Amino acid sequence: MNVMANRPRRLESYVCGRWVAGAKDGVPLLDAATGAPVAFIDSTGIDFKAVLAYGREKAGPALRRLSFHERAAMLKALGQALMERKEEFYALSTATGATRADSWIDIEGGIGTLLSYASKGRRELPNTRVLLDGEVETLSKDGSFSARHILSPLQGVAVHINAFNFPCWGMLEKIAPTLLAGVPTVVKPASQTAYLTELMVRRIVETGILPEGALQLVCGSVGDLLDHVEGQDAVTFTGSAATGRKLKTHRAIVDNSVRFTMEADSLNAAVLGLDAAPGTEEFDLFVREVAREMTAKAGQKCTAIRRVIAPRSCSEALIAGLRDRLGKTAIGNPADEAVRMGPLASLDQREEVRARIRDLSADAEIVAGDPDNPSVVSGDAMAGAFLNPVLLYCDRPAAARAVHDVEAFGPVSTVMPYDTAEEAVDLARRGKGSLVASVFTNDPGFAEEVVLGLAPFHGRVMIGNRASAKSSTGHGSPLPVLVHGGPGRAGGGEELGGMRGVKHYMQRTAVQGAPTLLSAVTGRWVPGAEVRLDGEHPFRKSLAELRIGDQLVTATRTVTLEDIEHFAHFTGDTFYAHMDEAAAKANPFFDGRVAHGYLIVSFAAGLFVDPAPGPVLANYGVDNLRFLTPVNPGDTLGVTLTCKEINPRANAEHGEVRWDCNVTNQHGATVAQYDVLTMVAKTKG
Ligand code: NDP
């Protein structure tokens, strides 16, 4: 299908394996800058119960059959395919009011999020279908009963209800962790900009990369869909607090304890440090950042700075700096390359923002920007949803309410003065929980006091100063590796956050039982589980032959004083505990000179390594190394090496093998315990 940006068309939903138009003609969606119709939207007639069932029954099993690495490879292929088609998305994005720079956040930011999850999935997750959480908990004295936590994908669907401001990123940032977890999705974009989401979903479906039903799209109302959600489903919502509250208390969500994540109105603050007076680099960075946050996406960003908290002594200079910068912002039709700020998403949205500015005016005075007479460099100021950036000043913010409660979802911020660091924290906290706050300071003491004061009330806190000025990703950028979401009025939910986001769509279960059965269930050998000693050195086995529990018990080696002195002089580590008998004795941990920990690890390798070329390709590190009992001259060491986990890499001739390495002395006491990590060939070459 050739989707043209300039021909209004009826949007379709992609449900139950096909594209369907609503039964009615649909509500017109207008170009934000010109007012011309772009599309018509309607979802009447869709059987939403069937949509959920299709996702659960058709796509759920198909996704769960894939390993994390296979799902990650799928996301990567999808990200690459979308990136190749990005210009088509940019062309249509202009109708939403977005400039090229705004669209970059939405389109390439969204695709980048997919790719970031693909890469994290491959690097940080095992090539399995189940995740382990934490270590083995031994629950009996004789080791015959243990427990470990596992995470497995929910068997329902994740319904993602999104806001109008990020039609691409909003969808992609949510489906990436969901699909990586192995859970199908139903995406419902906000109507106003749904045409861009619809276009992207068309391109996704055309690639055929996702299992059928893994991504369904509803353009228009979700009707009675929420009546049919069940305990294995999850619902996420981004939008207004009022709608969020309604959905959060929806009967089926409450009755079935459906996981509900909300990201709603957020009164994000930026704090200028007491040290950051006019003339400092931090002051200039702050002015730039506040102006950027106010004008990017015309202020329609969930993370935009709404409250500007600055030392009273700097307020005047700050307002002057911002007024100057904002006044130079070229507003107009985003199709014009000279334009730096486009219109709001719709005329209704502009009326909404103007009404909220009137609410804010109860506490604050407008010090820059006329909300009623937009000055545009291109486009029709009446037909398009243009609005000048509006800066307000609230002189007594501790006594005010509206400035901490009202989110004007547009290019609008309020400057509020403070005198002490404590006061700055108090003002920021009056937002009752936000997605993000930033602190601009070069004073470590101020940073510590303010960041620790803000942290319990925010999902993310960014510190800006001269050292990170060039590399900083800025106040407003949610990054796939970091938590996006906030406590309190920001919704009390979390999105993104790397693997934290993935785990949200999985169930954590404590599995208790005998170690051998726990090993079988989790795919990772557990101390006390059965082992296999078949006489063949496990380093001679390829991945095809190696089994979890394959074990090697080595010969022993006695550590001499000469060994310790040789190692000390050879490496240069002549720490007194190895070299000075009297000083070592005086140390509360040792009874005379001891072997170096790294000497023990080196001798252990000398005991367990099989030297000839073979399937073991490389040693790439150790995990969780602990030295548990001192080794004195005359002690005799031996090693028990057990194959703990086998992780074949997709699309490679090798995989990772994790070995449990237990080094003991002549009394059987563990002197060192760690995991050895190796790369092993899949077959003997
Ligand atoms: P809404 O809360 O009206 O809508 C958000 C999403 O919920 C849309 O997809 C909408 O669909 C859907 N929705 C609305 N009602 C229902 C319902 N009864 N059942 C199921 N889904 C529903 O927010 P908007 O997107 O219109 O934005 C309005 C305001 O929200 C903004 O002005 C801003 O203040 C705030 N907002 C805050 C954000 C934040 O993260 N801080 C992000 C975006 C918005 P439809 O569009 O079809 O009605």
UniProtKB/TrEMBL annotation:
<dbReference type="InterPro" id="IPR029069">
    <property type="entry name" value="HotDog_dom_sf"/>
</dbReference>
<dbReference type="Pfam" id="PF00171">
    <property type="entry name" value="Aldedh"/>
</dbReference>
<protein>
    <submittedName>
        <fullName>Phenylacetic acid degradation bifunctional protein PaaZ</fullName>
    </submittedName>
</protein>
<dbReference type="Pfam" id="PF01575">
    <property type="entry name" value="MaoC_dehydratas"/>
</dbReference>
<dbReference type="InterPro" id="IPR002539">
    <property type="entry name" value="MaoC-like_dom"/>
</dbReference>
<keyword id="KW-0560">Oxidoreductase</keyword>
<feature type="domain" description="MaoC-like">
    <location>
        <begin position="548"/>
        <end position="658"/>
    </location>
</feature>
<feature type="domain" description="Aldehyde dehydrogenase">
    <location>
        <begin position="19"/>
        <end position="510"/>
    </location>
</feature>
<dbReference type="InterPro" id="IPR016163">
    <property type="entry name" value="Ald_DH_C"/>
</dbReference>
<dbReference type="InterPro" id="IPR016162">
    <property type="entry name" value="Ald_DH_N"/>
</dbReference>
<dbReference type="InterPro" id="IPR016161">
    <property type="entry name" value="Ald_DH/histidinol_DH"/>
</dbReference>
<dbReference type="InterPro" id="IPR011966">
    <property type="entry name" value="PaaN-DH"/>
</dbReference>
<dbReference type="InterPro" id="IPR015590">
    <property type="entry name" value="Aldehyde_DH_dom"/>
</dbReference>
